[in-house]
């Protein structure tokens, strides 16, 4: 998948539209299934590839069923909508139609945990990763910058199972070539290992200023890079993982990676699923302890500082 010029100036969602059009031009089996969300954005793609952009309307359960049927017929379906309408609302269909039958499909969400809190709890979904983990093995990608969206989407649509790409309005200031399952070392230290997932990297870097910690960056959380974590934990097996969704979602995979050595784990993420507040994404980050100050305070307390 080509990296088009100017991607750095787009949002993740806009970079996704560019990448999908590129993918559909290369793969005649590529089909997009929509549930009204982003239908206007795909108008040009629909004209260029007639019959390969299917909008089922506000029927998310049907969208998953249609994707399952397409997959059974040899197509590579991609289903796109807001995270709660993609994972939570049609969860039974994701479980039975896709996972149970061992089908290939790519799910791409927007909205993340609380990107648009003005819409209320209906558009918030910090639970998505935990729900997918409950269904078994899948590939899960969390880009942290628009330039990372295209390469990660190509990996997702090239897979042989259910893949999930989680887009967000939050993003890091710089892209990193972290497109495979291997984590990238951003900073080295000896007191602890801090894993920053996707758009959390900038906040983690600022929170880690002055701390003797290793910072790893990942955009692929399933499968989890146990080898890189074990290597980074050479000096300390105190591990902090900072994720932009339900706190503790990745603690089981970290536990498994370090199962044969003594260790401590702190999982930072969304700790309160429902704050009963609107506000802005930044205000929700602050309330969840996922702003720079909150992350720094949690790491320092974990390290006894």
TrEMBL record:
<dbReference type="InterPro" id="IPR051157">
    <property type="entry name" value="PDH/Transketolase"/>
</dbReference>
<dbReference type="InterPro" id="IPR005475">
    <property type="entry name" value="Transketolase-like_Pyr-bd"/>
</dbReference>
<dbReference type="InterPro" id="IPR029061">
    <property type="entry name" value="THDP-binding"/>
</dbReference>
<dbReference type="Pfam" id="PF02779">
    <property type="entry name" value="Transket_pyr"/>
</dbReference>
<dbReference type="InterPro" id="IPR009014">
    <property type="entry name" value="Transketo_C/PFOR_II"/>
</dbReference>
<protein>
    <submittedName>
        <fullName>Transketolase family protein</fullName>
    </submittedName>
</protein>
<feature type="domain" description="Transketolase-like pyrimidine-binding">
    <location>
        <begin position="10"/>
        <end position="171"/>
    </location>
</feature>
